[in-house]
Design brief:
Blueprint: E1 2-20, E2 25-39, E3 44-51, H1 55-58, H2 62-76, H3 85-94, H4 99-117, H5 121-124, E4 131-133, E5 136-138, H6 143-155, E6 160-164, H7 171-184, E7 189-193, H8 200-210, E8 217-221, H9 229-238, E9 243-245, H10 252-260, E10 266-269, H11 271-289, E11 292-295, H12 302-315, E12 320-321, H13 325-328, E13 335-337, E14 339-342, E15 345-348, E16 357-359
Parallel strand pairs: 5-6, 6-7, 7-8, 8-9, 9-10, 10-11, 11-12
Antiparallel strand pairs: 1-2, 2-3, 4-15, 13-16, 14-15
Helix pairs in contact: 3-4, 4-11, 6-7, 8-9, 10-11
């Protein structure tokens, strides 16, 4: 079965509410959906993929992703999809510096391969377990509002909360937010995500003050700017909580450097930063080095979450799951299947072909 056409289109999707972190405020989820049409003369399939670029992370925008997909479409035409390696090798070379575009195309290629071969991608990745337990994110918002969100999350069955910090008002407001969340959901475990908000010294001071607020903190994520490996390591060496890298790792080489420097306790893999093939390599690196793994997401729909969940549940490689962005979006009626969720449990459709997701782009 060969690739015939590659189509891409922008979907601008509303959020339930503005989503604020230290680097930006998002009002919509800007995704590029990719449709990979394949046939063998008697049967046709379409592989679905989606790219959710974030400029401050990978330097990409929806415009650059659309342009990249258009530019590579003719090269992909005619490539056999029954064996996946040729198509993956093609985009790996051309999109080496465009990980979000690469991730969306890889997602579509894997989906088409699964459909062409009547295979579940959960099975391809190892079929380790059918479910994963995710956190849910509380953005930068006033403490009182954060407490309300935490209480609602706990009532909905979430036992792990990821808290964004780095408010422009300063660390006192961040600490008040965390305190309000801890009081509203006292049984919850907390993950603190700074999105590069602090200098190394400020991060260390913040975490020391944080220690007096609550004892249910699991980890600190990306406290300093990406590229400051020395600063990241200094924070890790100075605090008692595990330190995870996020924006600092957009490639296999980034992961290798942090591991060789012993600068982190773990790495947050996101498909939009490394693609699926890169994610599998980073998993191998972290496992060999004894580093922990988290899988996260950008502002993605059920399609992107399904792909990440199939990878996480299939490999069983991840210690922490942060796949909640589909909960932040208003319903997207054009997308169905792939995963089911109840409370904080995501269950993949283990009998589905490909990702098990149907995308209607009428």
């Amino acid at each position: 079965m060969e690739i015939r056409t590659v189509r891409a289109e922008l979907w601008s999707l509303p959020l339930h509410a503005p989503f604020a972190i230290s680097q930006r405020i998002a009002y919509t989820a800007e995704n590029v959906f990719i449709f990979l049409d394949c046939d063998d003369g008697s049967r046709s399939v379409t592989g679905f993929g989606a790219s959710a670029p974030v400029a401050y992370v990978t330097g990409e925008t929806t415009d650059t992703v659309l342009a990249a997909i258009t530019a590579i479409a003719d090269k992909l035409a005619g490539i056999d999809i029954d064996t996946i390696d040729g198509a993956l090798a093609m985009i790996s070379g051309d999109l080496d510096r465009m990980p979000a575009a690469k991730a969306g195309l890889e997602m579509a290629i894997f989906d088409a391969w699964g459909k062409a071969n009547n295979r579940s991608l959960w099975q391809r990745f190892g079929a380790y377990q059918p479910t994963v337990q995710t956190d849910i994110t509380i953005p930068i918002t006033p403490p009182e509002a954060a407490g309300v969100l935490a209480a609602k999350a706990a009532e909905a069955g979430f036992t792990i909360l990821k808290i964004k910090v780095g408010a422009c008002e300063g660390p006192d407001v961040d600490l008040a937010r965390i305190q309000a969340i801890a009081q509203a959901a006292p049984a919850s475990r907390l993950r603190i995500d700074a999105n590069q908000a602090f200098s190394p010294d400020a991060a260390i001071d913040f975490v020391k003050r944080l220690s007096a607020v609550d004892s249910h903190i699991e980890l600190i994520e990306q406290p300093v700017v990406r590229g400051d490996t020395d600063g990241l390591k200094s924070v890790r060496d100075a605090i008692d909580y595990p330190v995870f890298a996020d924006e600092a790792v957009c490639s296999v080489d980034d992961a290798r450097e942090l591991i060789e420097r012993d600068a982190v306790d773990g790495i947050n893999i996101k498909l939009m930063k490394s693609g699926i093939s890169g994610a599998l390599q980073i998993i191998d690196l972290c496992k060999a080095a004894g580093k922990k793994l988290m899988i996260g997401c950008m502002l993605e729909t059920e399609l992107g979450i399904a792909a990440a969940a199939h990878l996480a549940a299939g490999t069983g490689a991840f210690d922490h799951i942060d796949l909640d962005s589909h909960r932040l979006l208003a319903p997207v009626p054009q997308i169905r299947g792939g995963i089911r969720h109840e409370g904080d449990i995501i269950e993949v459709d283990t009998e589905a072909i490909g990702w098990g997701v149907d995308v209607r782009n009428e």
